Amino acid sequence: xxxxxxxxxxxxxxxxxxxxxxxxxxxxxxxxxxxxxxxxxxxxxxxxxxxxxxxxxxxxxxxxxxxxxxxxxxxxxxxxxxxxxxxxxxxxxxxxxxxxxxxxxxxxxxxxxxxxxxxxxxxxxxxxxxxxxxxxxxxxxxxxxxxxxxxxxxxxxxxxxxxxxxxxxxxxxxxxxxxxxxxxxxxxxxxxxxxxxxxxxxxxxxxxxxxxxxxxxxxxxxxxxxxxxxxxxxxxxxxxxxxxxxxxxxxxxxxxxxxxxxxxxxxxxxxxxxxxxxxxxxxxxxxxxxxxxxxxxxxxxxxxxxxxxxxxxxxxxxxxxxxxxxxxxxxxxxxxxxxxxxxxxxxxxxxxxxxxxxxxxxxxxxxxxxxxxxxxxxxxxxxxxxxxxxxxxxxxxxxxxxxxxxxxxxxxxxxxxxxxxxxxxxxxxxxxxxxxxxxxxxxxxxxxxxxxxxxxxxxxxxxxxxxxxxxxxxxxxxxxxxxxxxxxxxxxxxxxxxxxxxxxxxxxxxxxxxxxxxxxxxxxxxxxxxxxxxxxxxxxxxxxxxxxxxxxxxxxxxxxxxxxxxxxxxxxxxxxxxxxxxxxxxxxxxxxxxxxxxxxxxxxxxxxxxxxxxxxxxxxxxxxxxxxxxxxxxxxxxxxxxxxxxxxxxxxxxxxx
Length: 657
Description:
With 657 residues, the protein is an alpha/beta fold. The protein has 23 helices and 22 strands. The strands form four sheets. It has a seven-stranded parallel beta sheet with strand order 7-18-12-11-10-8-9, sandwiched between helices. Helix 7 crosses helix 10 and helix 14 runs parallel beside helix 15.
């Protein structure tokens, strides 16, 4: 049976903690007392109040008081600040004694909730006593104060929470970014409008607290993100059941493997775009002592594995990457030992094969399709020393590097050729899908057309909407069309790249950009040997996206026999200018279709601005298609890499990004 002496001892302990918190707040320039809701709302408009009745609310979301009375009696974390001989201390000790007794503290406090935080009106000392014992929740009669809607990110995230609360009934599910709850529903295997059962709420709360424990142990409280934000990172790699079944030590180990990705959530831009090889960026610099030491520590031979979703015979995209693999082996010789895993039909199979390769000593992995990003992340968390790469764009995961090519540079040259050779002033463009990088290619092509034929227009169609786009353009009398770039230089005779549509219905391929994945793989593997790969690791927790172009010879152009000599000379002049960095396709006055000035011609676009373009420039006739306009066979790619993927409601079968 607890005695008053035990309650007094608890007050002494809580008082010591309160004074420590107070001093820490002063030292770091923070307000040392609980926040006061009346002061927060004094200059704020609200949309009204909602009586929620009695709820079990999380203690860690109680951050203040309704009014200013008694606020100086508590530190920021609701620990007491008044001496033990005060009336306040006596009442606190009495409550503590009641809590330690058989009945405990049962009466609910009264509080207001605003923006997901609770402000106590009655029951401050009850909160203080229970917080001192580490109680996770407390019963409370809650009145919600709803803020006025605005496009402020915090307000949008809160309104997203209000919608989520209707489905979960849980206050703990708080995200810092709108749209995240929909990803949680998908990660948990629920439909978007699924209402959680009592058992689901109970299980989630248990797993959430387990996760919160290890999140805080790793320093999560110092990050400007919520526990739920970090939990979503976990659920992108591990199942929720893992939280319930694992030990604390195992949960801690798993979260440590994901910690760079968790920290990346707090960065305004979590991706570092590498636009040139490390050899190129350091070619005129003699490495110092530490640089030479790093080079000396690199391996003399590498085991490299390629993972393909399809067989090379089934996909031109895979065939191109496989040719790149052959080029790597031919150039690097005995320096590399290469293995190939093709025809991977499921994520589970991909994980099993990648893990087996890692266990067998593979040091570098290239997964050649974006849809393999999930398995890549799972394996990267388990084998952090393996250098894992996924051929995709805009994947903010520090454990997996992504790679793609600046194909828009070649498209700009194709546009200049099309403008110079077009007689009608009508030029067609067939785009694949509205994924990252595609709007940049459309815009670059159009700017190339405008450079050589200012009055011409570019008529846009999407193969993900109309499978017969090329035939439709021929029927409409469009003589010059930019079709898909050739996957490999030996495919020039098919209607790839820039085509002239003859009156006899025949297509003549005139020119095309192409991907030279072989050069990419050779240069990247060489950067591993030289220490350049490791040099990019110090990016303040950012993930790395290789986005190389003509300068690194990962994008080339192929000109057909029927290109006139003058146009051929122009194309070569532009290629050299882009490769040498003296000519930038987007450094010119540019307006988008809505008339907005995107560039006044006096500055250049940063790589991120080009990569994440989601607008089309003036001169393009056509729009970026809506998701429901896209053919089912293309929708998965758009959900994964689409320029508006964040606005799509996640499905439980999706790879959660």
